[in-house]
Amino acid sequence: xxxxxxxxxxxxxxxxxxxxxxxxxxxxxxxxxxxxxxxxxxxxxxxxxxxxxxxxxxxxxxxxxxxxxxxxxxxxxxxxxxxxxxxxxxxxxxxxxxxxxxxxxxxxxxxxxxxxxxxxxxxxxxxxxxxxxxxxxxxxxxxxxx
Amino acid sequence: xxxxxxxxxxxxxxxxxxxxxxxxxxxxxxxxxxxxxxxxxxxxxxxxxxxxxxxxxxxxxxxxxxxxxxxxxxxxxxxxxxxxxxxxx
Lengths: 146, 89
Hints:
The complex is a heterodimer of chains A (146) and B (89). Chain A is of the alpha+beta class and 146 residues long. Chain A has two domains: 4-107, Ribosomal protein S6/Translation elongation factor EF1B (Alpha-Beta Plaits, 2-Layer Sandwich); 117-146. Helix content of chain A is 46%, strand content 32%. Chain A has four helices and four strands. Chain A has helices at residues 18-34, 71-83, 97-107, 120-145, and strands spanning 4-12, 38-54, 57-69, 87-94. A four-stranded antiparallel sheet of chain A has the order 2-3-1-4, covered by helices on one side. In chain A, strand 2 (38-54) and strand 3 (57-69) form a beta hairpin. The longest helix of chain A is centred in the last third of the chain and has 26 residues, at 120-145. With 89 residues, chain B is mostly helical. Chain B has one domain: CATH 4.10.640.10. Chain B has helices at residues 25-29, 39-42, 55-58, 62-77. Chain B is elongated. The N and C termini of chain B lie far apart (49 Å). Chain A binds chain B through residues 9, 11, 50-52, 54, 60, 62, 64, 88-89, 91, 93, 96, 98-99, 101-102, 112-113, and chain B through 32-33, 35-40, 74, 76-83, 85.
């Protein structure tokens, strides 16, 4: 069966508190795992202001997940979301190769909002390590030549 | 008086009509994917009413304007951006 990378955003009602929402999320993740999806990322954003009211609620609890699955599983997940009154909104997106790269970089802390900017001493340490490695390589080559 | 203040106002040629050339920021910075979850970034491409800015203002190439539009629409669906509003910025 052909599998693809998907990303789903859930918006839960603020009637659940965050702990309840987390247990709710766990049931969804358990469902995905049970159906044979490979989970790559689980990101719990928590309570956020909505840009416009949905079902007279002005806040929502956001959860984002990335996974590898078949199209049939996505259908099943969406049916589950539609039946669930606790889910205000959900959005599933198929990720193209650039999106997959972006998400990998984001997990590594290279891009996105939580980008970690390396401090100068860290950069220097890395450069030193690279220089030492290069020197070693040259030395070993010279020995090989002799 | 020949040299009044209004005469020396334009000693150097005023910079009128020398508009900076617009460019596509995605092509220039080699950004290949536009994240619909990053609403602060998408604010660059919508006006105060939450409408998409035209390419003639944002300077995006057609390829990336389509992607921006897609990302903004996704962000609206999950309530990160409003569909209609006033005084967004």
